[in-house]
Specification:
136 residues; mainly alpha; 74% helix; transmembrane; transmembrane helix
Amino acid sequence: MASQQQWKLRLVVLEVISLLTLIASLFLLRGSAAENGAPTLLWLLLPAGASLTMFLSFLGLMYLRWVASAGSGNRKRVHTILFGLMTITLLSIWALAMVQTWQSMNTQDDPVAGETKQPVSSPPRVHESLRHELLT
C-alpha cells in the first residue's frame, strides 16, 4: 500500500494535469465556438471532466491533510465530519455550476420556438400589425 507521501505526490500531479487540461480545453472551446458557433457535447464534456477531476484530487489532498493526519479519537471524528460537509458543499456547487452551464448552452438557440435568444440591450420585437397600429 502506498504511503501518504506517495498519495500526495500522485494527487498533486493529477490536480496539475487536470488544471492544464481544463485551461487548454477552454481555449479550444473558445476557438471552436468562434468558428463553428455552439460547441458540441463532446467539447463540453472535456472541461467538465477536467474540473471534476481537479476538484476530486483537491479533496483527496484535503483528506490526507485533515483527516488522515488528525490522529485518532474525537479529533479525527470532528475532522471527518467537517471534511464530509466541505466535500458535499464543494461538489454541490460544482454540480450546480455544470447544470447552469448546460442550461445556458441549450437556451441560446431554441429550435422548438424557432427563434434565438435576444441580447438584453436590444429592443423587443413588435409584430408588423402591432407596429402599424402603434405608428398610426
